[in-house]
Predict the structure of C4-dicarboxylate ABC transporter substrate-binding protein.
Amino acid sequence: MRNATSRILTGTLAGTLMIAAGGAQADRSEWPESFTVGTASQGGTYFVYGSGWANLIADELGVSGGGEVTGGPTQNLALVHGGDVAFGLATMGPASDAVSGKSPLAPGVAMDNVCALFPMYETPFSITALSGSGITSISDIPDGARVGFGPAASTSDTYFPAILEELGVDFDRRNGGWSDLGGQLQDGLIDVIAFAAGIPIPAVSQLEVQTDVNIIEFTEEEQATVLENFPVSEFQIPASTYETLEEDARAVSMWNFSIAGCDLPEDFVYEVTKLTMENNDRMRDVHRSAATSIPENIKYNTVLPFHPGAVRWYEENGYEIPDAQQL
């Protein structure tokens, strides 16, 4: 594997600087002086989750870092692989495409410098429209409807158009950040937003405060069709997620994992993994979707190898990583 460390690590951090309790015994001689987490657009869960996680790492481990707005999982995979960011957030569908050389951003390039760290949460695919539109089901979406699919090349933009096409929806495709699309929906510039994001989606919660919306579920038949044709799982959006919902809403979902450059220092990644996995209460303070950011869910990564630093923490704590998923 080629070495991209020189583009990630901008210096070393002396052990005499601020030493967080969790990493007091770690060898910091090869640690980065700073790091960046690739997230997604503002108004989406990735941005909130990734920025909050970056701040937790920076505060506790004494390394300068933060979240960066990106186009989402597909771009994050390319940025991590190329060494342009140290960490990122990714969905398993785009991750599978990336490692097999099918990323739309780099066709034919097998992204082999991307390793998994820990499970985040499931990304439900959900649809929101204004109540005044009269759209209460997928079959109600009129021909030629203007549908916002999130940032270009995001998980939503990669899979949701194909899902709606499979379900017989004819639409005019629009892209943009989630907050921007929420504003366009409220202003009548688009008709529907097809979200693929961790819940609660900040843009939807904001819309609920400002106007009346319909959160549209899949019918049983629609769900079965999507499960048969796409790499997704069954999901129920709990009624407690949004004020608008009166009962759980049927959906489909993909798992998300945090990712890292495989050539990041093992000790550094070990401490990042330890901090994250041993402080789920603090992760839930970042975003409540982190309730599933627990080591028991590592089984949902069947695509990427785990970083050696992450493997060390899991195995020390009784979680087995198959040999096939180790470097």
User: Anything to note?
Assistant: The longest strand covers residues 114-130. The beta strands are 34-38, 64-68, 87-91, 114-130, 145-148, 171-174, 192-196, 213-216, 233-237, 249-261. The radius of gyration is 20 Å. The mean pLDDT is 91.
